[in-house]
Amino acid sequence: MQSRFEACGFLVDVDGTLVSGGKALPEARQFLSDLHDRFVLVSNDAEHTPSELAHKLQSLQLPVPAERIVLAGTTAIDEVAVERPGARVMLLASASLQAYARQAGLRIVKDKAEVVVLGRDRHFSYDKLATAANVIRGGATLVVANPDLMHPAPQAAVVPETGALLAALLACAGRVPYRVVGKPEPTLFTAALALLGTPPEATVMIGDNPATDGEGARRLGIGYIEVHDGRLLHVVSADKRAESMEPAAYMASPP
User: Fold this and answer.
1) What CA–CA distances, in Å, run from 61 to 20, 102, 156, 207, 236?
2) Domain boundary, last residue among 180, 198, 228
3) Alpha-carbon distance 253 to 231, whole Å?
């Protein structure tokens, strides 16, 4: 029997939920339209800014304004900028995140950092690994944007993510404390809830990864809809009750 899940707001993952292999999934455009702008995209993306992702989605005919996109990389930088204004930061991330961090008032350095922020750095190298590990061993705070080890790509390939770089860093720096900003930790969820203006119990997280999207939602009492191969398959409420669910069998409450 088809079930219906009422919600006032939706948190929506990107990779594997709306997009796969650089292409919009078949139902993504209609799905976003059905949500009537009562959604915020929440992604562990630790490489791009919201503006960059908005431009990419627009090219896929998925129009979402940057103001309704919450990303792990930029959120990690925002957190450091608020807590440690003007800090000396070694930022292992993309050029666009480097620019974003400078605009946030952080001083980007290659050594003698107070904070190391780890994002998805396509130019990660032996020298960066050695420098970051020694800076952390010397007392610098480690902030990790995204704990994911990888994400799947077409033809059963894998794409290394920030968590894979973290594994290498911890192998050299040792058992040091670090802070994770991305899902399943609460930071991205609470930021998105603030944008939506909805309480957790009236909000649903829609994603393809039960270990990050689902677990993070469960911790905050947010409902969870699981996506597999671009199809909405299950709805799991905060009390862990599961029901069969056909695609688009949700019901968005009136604004």
Assistant:
1) 14, 31, 26, 20, 29
2) 180
3) 21
CATH number at 218 reads: 3.40.50.1000
Question: 141-144 and 19-20 as β-strands: parallel, antiparallel, unpaired?
Answer: unpaired
Query: Does residue 99 fall inside a structural domain?
Result: yes
Q: Which residue range forms the structural domain that includes residue 146?
A: 73-180
Rg (CA), the chain: 18
What pTM was estimated for this model as a whole?
A: 0.88
C-alpha span between 232 and 16 (Å, rounded)? 11
How many domains does the chain contain in total? 2
User: Hunting for tokens 């292409």 — which residue is that?
Assistant: 23
Q: Give tens-digit pLDDT for 219-236.
A: 999 999 998 866 655 555
In this structure, which amino acid lies at residue 98?
Q
- Asked if residue 206 lies in contact with residue 48, where contact means CB atoms within 8 angstroms, the answer is no
Average pLDDT, the chain: 88
